[in-house]
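Bug #77: duplicate submission created two jobs. Keeping one. Sequence:
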Amino acid sequence: MRSILQAEVQERGLAPHFRFLGTVPNDETPQLIAACDFAVYPSFAEATSVSALEVMAMARPVVASDVGGLPEIVFPEETGLLVPFHVRESTYGDLGLLPDSEEGLIAAVLRMVHDDDARRRMGEGARRFVVENASWPAYVARIEKIYHAANRCPVSQ
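Kept job's structure:
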């Protein structure tokens, strides 16, 4: 959809504000995230987004659709903003996003653009969430807890 999105950006006179980067080497990703104020995930379907967690780990809040695993990591006003996505049948030519969803996404993005304090607060909350729940030390602690619990339970044969 790159060409479609680029045409839309051009048509709306927004080209000076957008860069379509294409494939970026992994080692350059942290620099790009650091240059952003927040990230937007207008997904129709999404598992737990590693990309969103990476952004959140760098204290950047997320605007995301309330689908799939995103509501498990994006908590409204704490780590970002969730937008209800209501769709009708979609095609490549018409994604099927209903107007209330479009308006919600626009409102959430504009809030992030204009509300520096909320953006900073949610970014700090996002970082805290990742450190406490999605970092390697947090994963190891959960796995150790499972192993310790399993060792206390008698094994049935």
